[in-house]
């Protein structure tokens, strides 16, 4: 991509510019009076978000992150689409779909009436994607950087046959200490425990992490909270059009075996994902669309 042309066509003086930096991918750097953010056009991927006055990033990025074409970025906000988890048809296709390792297009940029900065990136079906998943689609991620971070994953069925998707905003959150961190709002929710063979269990009280966790929570409320006393803050997660939340932390052994995650990174990250997964699959008719939204707001303890 031509950075000069991108800045000419979509840059916003004083608040949005296109840069390359060490990733080698075109990045969107945003700074306004309400906050700052960094977005990779490759994968439509948020890498950083910090509201004004915050001393630590809200978003976690691996200390051993690898920026390489054809590889998903470890940390930030990966987009799982059009399926979450393993290939639902057992055809050997990659986990979490095929949009995490493709270059997206810039659709638009703007300053909103509230002074936030909004970016829309998009991806359309091609002959290659039709070989993987034989449907016509337009996918967009609308990212609004302001006093909160708003992510809208918009799927439009541009074909003549209905399709069904599962999906997730696989967000990695930066925390101070996993041993002190709790997730609030899931009391009495059922969940699928993927660490324990997919058994369905019931959550009692807050979620605390003391070992590997990989859970798909079902019929969840619209607001969840990450309580992070080590950084004296809470991260509130408000979702729309989502009935599923995934909580994931690889813990010690799995983290040590992941080549793009630092051995001790598990201590300062937690994934709380806004999703349509398991039985919360979404059927989209021809010429219709679906908007999965997550809003992240920081609150001091």
* SSE ordering: HEEEEEEEHEEEEEEEEEEEEEHEEE
Radius of gyration: 18 Å
- The helix content is under 10%
In the CATH hierarchy, the architecture is Distorted Sandwich
Structural class: mainly beta
Per DSSP, the total helix count is: 3
Short description:
The protein is mainly β. It has 3 helices and 23 strands.
What does this molecule look like?
By secondary structure, this protein is mainly β. The protein has one domain: Beta-galactosidase, Chain A, domain 5 (Distorted Sandwich). The protein has helices spanning 3-10, 127-132, 251-256, and strands at residues 16-19, 27-32, 35-40, 45-51, 79-80, 105-111, 117-124, 137-145, 149-157, 163-165, 167-169, 172-174, 182-184, 190-193, 199-202, 207-208, 213-218, 223-228, 233-240, 244-249, 269-276, 282-284, 289-300. The longest helix is centred in the N-terminal third of the chain and has 8 residues, at 3-10. It starts with a helix and ends with a strand. The mean pLDDT is 97.
Key traits:
mainly beta, Beta-galactosidase, Chain A, domain 5, 9-stranded antiparallel sheet, 8-stranded antiparallel sheet, 43% strand
SSE order and pairing:
Layout: H1 3-10, E1 16-19, E2 27-32, E3 35-40, E4 45-51, E5 79-80, E6 105-111, E7 117-124, H2 127-132, E8 137-145, E9 149-157, E10 163-165, E11 167-169, E12 172-174, E13 182-184, E14 190-193, E15 199-202, E16 207-208, E17 213-218, E18 223-228, E19 233-240, E20 244-249, H3 251-256, E21 269-276, E22 282-284, E23 289-300
């Amino acid at each position: 991509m031509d950075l000069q042309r991108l800045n000419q066509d979509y840059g916003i003086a004083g608040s949005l510019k296109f840069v390359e930096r060490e990733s080698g991918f075109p990045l969107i750097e945003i700074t306004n009076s309400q906050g700052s953010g960094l977005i990779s056009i490759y994968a439509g991927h948020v890498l950083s978000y910090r509201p004004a006055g915050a001393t630590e990033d809200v978003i976690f990025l691996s200390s051993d992150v690898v920026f390489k074409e054809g590889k998903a970025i470890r940390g930030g906000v990966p987009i799982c689409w059009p399926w979450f988890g393993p290939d639902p048809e057992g055809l050997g296709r990659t986990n979490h779909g095929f949009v995490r390792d493709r270059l997206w297009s810039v659709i638009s940029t703007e300053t909103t009436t509230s002074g936030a900065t909004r970016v829309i990136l998009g991806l359309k079906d091609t002959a290659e994607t039709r070989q993987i998943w034989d449907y016509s689609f337009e996918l967009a991620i609308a990212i609004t950087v302001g006093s909160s971070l708003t992510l809208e994953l918009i799927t439009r069925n541009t074909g003549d046959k209905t399709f069904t998707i599962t999906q997730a905003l696989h967000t990695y959150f930066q925390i101070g200490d996993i041993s002190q961190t709790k997730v609030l709002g899931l009391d009495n929710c059922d969940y699928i425990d993927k660490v324990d063979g997919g058994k369905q269990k019931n959550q009692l009280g807050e979620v605390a992490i003391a070992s590997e966790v990989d859970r798909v929570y079902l019929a969840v409320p619209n607001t969840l909270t990450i309580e992070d006393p080590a950084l004296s803050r809470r991260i509130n997660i408000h979702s729309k059009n989502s009935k599923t939340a995934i909580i994931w932390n690889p813990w010690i052994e799995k983290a040590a075996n992941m080549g793009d995650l630092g051995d001790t990174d598990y201590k300062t990250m937690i994934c709380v994902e806004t999703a349509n997964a398991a039985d919360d699959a979404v059927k989209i008719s021809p010429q219709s669309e679906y908007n999965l939204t997550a809003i992240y707001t920081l609150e001091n303890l």
